[in-house]
Amino acid sequence: MATKRGPSPELISNPFIKRQNLEWSLEPSGSTRKSDRISNSNSNSSSDEKHSQGPGPKENHPETSAVEAGSAQISDHLGYFGGHLAGATLSPFPPGTPRLSIDGYRRLYEANAGNPVGAHFVMHQHDHPVAGTHYDLRLQINETSSASWAIMYGLPGDPNSQRLNRNATETRIHCLWNHLIETASSATGSLLIWDTGTYTVLPPSGHEGGSSRRKTRATTDSQSSSGDGRPPSSSGELTEQEKLRRAFQARKISLRLDGARLPRDYVLNLRLTRDEDAAGRERSSARASTRRRRGRGGAARGRGRGRGKGKAIEPAASSSDSDVYGEDSDNDVDGEEGEGIANAGAPAEVNDGDTMSAMEREVRELEDEQVRRTNAYPGAANSIGSVHQRRWYVSLDRAACGFTRRRGARGRVVWEKNSERDGDAGEDRLAFPFYVRGPDVERSVVTGRLGADVLMDEGVEGYISRRGWRPVLN
Q: In Å, how far are 166, 232, 299, 302 from 109, measured between CA atoms?
């Protein structure tokens, strides 16, 4: 009797796949580009921007998105992000782009972090896949934390604009080291530093007349001319943090921002109406109680389910503003600034049945509850009384910026710049009027990158930005 023939050595499991195709390997284009930049950085050691090594091996240096989300812990945020951005800086730097050197970036943060008189600010451009493009203004409120507002169209720069007021939605209190971040991920989009520097809180309009503002401006100019970014310290005078806290409680903040991109005489007003204050507090308390009920029900259902089955859960607390407009965003923002952000903050579909135990899930829910209760991310302190998703209004303080009101030929009121001082001549910083034109145009003041460059450098492929954002040009 004939024996059964054994399996053929040429037999493969799937006849539709060629054997040679199984040996193919693909590398993300982002990683290649990033390695090229780091190698160029090391070879060009004569440049003062390339003195620092890149992020190094992945096993010793977690991804920037993991650090930003809080899933990876590091002890030296300035050293980590400083080295990372030094390796990612474009060379040559794009001409005409305002620039803050890596050394200046480091000195600025060192002078303000952990300092009770620190006054650090950052303006992040955040291209989020759900919330859409917006700009996060963050102001230092104590040694370790900063208050944050999300402004959909960025800061106003035209004194004669037809849209003088813009919505500024109050978000979570962030850790101060978030001011250092440039990162990207498929879940949160790209985040880059649009501008950074120090802020000065000015007296309210009409308080002690205009001489007080001119005196404050002259004092700040003398301090910033030293170039070390060190905030003022004077016994007997209120610190900028205390001035900010008092103005915040009064619901009207007048700020002078001294950064690398904005014009030197840039002053804006942030105000919160009494009605919006009451409505924001009511929304925040109602949302917290609703989420607590949902969280208890979801946790109970999760414990009763089997493993390995994906389900929609609330994302973990993160330092990013992925919940910038929240679940009720269609009620939080009116008119044009409400378009395109209605579904921001929706829970993501996450399959964690095999990676997260019941105890880990319970700890995460407790952390999220703590974040909602305090309106502060882990490690940050809400010392200013911030309330999540209150709707402020931001506008350009035209008089404090050096503009004078005049009547035009047909009686139309126009604001014209005084010619007393022209400190921006010969510099790459912005000049009035200016317009924020979005991720396709705006570059980082530290690395010179576009949002697409940050996505590529972080290895994010196939990212789809939310459409519908348009710059305000009138």
A: 29, 14, 41, 43
